[in-house]
Write a structure and sequence with these properties.
- The protein has three domains: 141 residues, Gyrase A, domain 2 (2-Layer Sandwich); 72 residues, Aminomethyltransferase beta-barrel domains (Alpha-Beta Plaits); 76 residues, Elongation Factor Tu (Ef-tu), domain 3 (Beta Barrel), CATH 2.40.30.
- Helix content is 19%, strand content 33%.
- The protein has a six-stranded mixed beta sheet.
- Strand 17 and strand 18 form a beta hairpin.
- Helix 2 crosses helix 7.
- It is globular and about 60 Å long.
- The glycine cleavage system catalyzes the degradation of glycine.
- Pfam families: GCV_T, GCV_T_C.
- It comes from Haloactinospora alba.
- Keywords: Aminotransferase, Methyltransferase, Transferase.
Length: 375
Amino acid sequence: MTAPDSGTDAQPRETALRETHEHLGATLVDFAGWLMPLRYSSEKAEHTAVREKAALFDLSHMGEIRITGPQAADLLDYAMVGHLSAVKIGRARYTMITAEDGGVLDDLIVYRLADDDYLVVANAANADTVLAALTQRSTGFDARVDDQTEDYALLALQGPEAARILAPLTDADLDQIRYYAGYRHTVAGHEVLLARTGYTGEDGFEIFLKPASAAPEVWRALLSEGEQYGLVPAGLSARDTLRLEAGMPLYGNELSADITPFSAGQGRVVKFDKPGDFVGRAALAEASESQRPRRLVGLVGRGRRVPRKDQNVLCDGQVVGNVTSGAPSPTLGSPIAMAYVDGGLSAAAGTFAVDVRGRPEEVDVVDLPFYKRDR
């Protein structure tokens, strides 16, 4: 798991749960300019809790940008690759914002709260970049771009027991909240935006709290209710291995300004059939039709040594790509990795390996994701 350096010597920003994390014995680290819990116990235990029971994450470092006004939908259709004006009220959409050359500036989730009211959720390391791009692209649109990151806290309750834990604490009928939906409800007596979204490959909910000061009370209520179901707090390390098993890209690893959505295997998010122009359209249209010089694949190690970011991928001893993310998989019991390899290669092209500190470790090339939950 990596995050770009903030480039300054400023002290990291703190979430409303700083004291709560310290009380629980969390290891706190500077992540994308925020002081965040890396782990509370062990990464494996927290990871396994999400797969088998449930875990609770503090994600208050994510950026929240509000887009409002009569042309909010038009602005987002122009500024992003997705068809956001087609999103129904109460629904969410995974999308991306790119530069003119088609390179990814960030991957995002956009919630439509009302006809002219959207909430854009950006990765912490890219929140300022996304804010600047949306502000610049809003010229000529009757829409307001408002950074509300400081106003929000964000909790994620993830795992097969998530709905059972949340149900007694909310006024929502959780059976009626579909995947990628988000509605205003109450949780532990506080008004929230309650979304059925996540970054773990499991069922679960993300809870947007405004004001952020409500987070400690809601956190405690969830942990108390969830104790009987095995709920534990979890940190960024477990979140990273969970998203890797689920084949979900991480900005700075699988996504960057040098990579188009098509190279990352995310071409489906680019909507050429929406009306009007959008930033990056011409470059992305060309990228969609050309043979991609590289493609994203999954690797499963045959041994015990773990491929890590930037290590070379070999085919019959020749360098054919590089690892973007790698870790031991607690669920599969094997090392796994995502990697970019030459676009024309197939899994049957030869014997694949990763150069792990000077020694080739054989791997199998597989389709992503590595893990998919039973629906």
